[in-house]
Amino acid sequence: MPIAVDQELCISCGACIDTCPEVFDWNEDDKAHNIVDEVPADMEDQAREAAEGCPTNAITLD
Ligand code: SF4
């Protein structure tokens, strides 16, 4: 499953990193970014939870 974080929308709340640290981490701009291009199958539920929990809807999954 491809994943992306819109850097313009991220407000650095950290929720996605708390929810799914296997997929998200901080970057040099103190924004969250995805550390994998494709979410592993066993991480999809957590990644989806992180996307739904993002307060600015910065995370795109498809
Ligand atoms: S949950 Fe959304 S706003 Fe918060 S750090 Fe992650 S991408 Fe940024």
From TrEMBL:
Residues 1-29 form the 4Fe-4S ferredoxin-type domain. Ferredoxins are iron-sulfur proteins that transfer electrons in a wide variety of metabolic reactions. Pfam families: Fer4_13. This is Ferredoxin. GO terms for molecular function: electron transfer activity; iron ion binding; iron-sulfur cluster binding. Keywords: Electron transport, Iron, Iron-sulfur, Metal-binding, Transport.
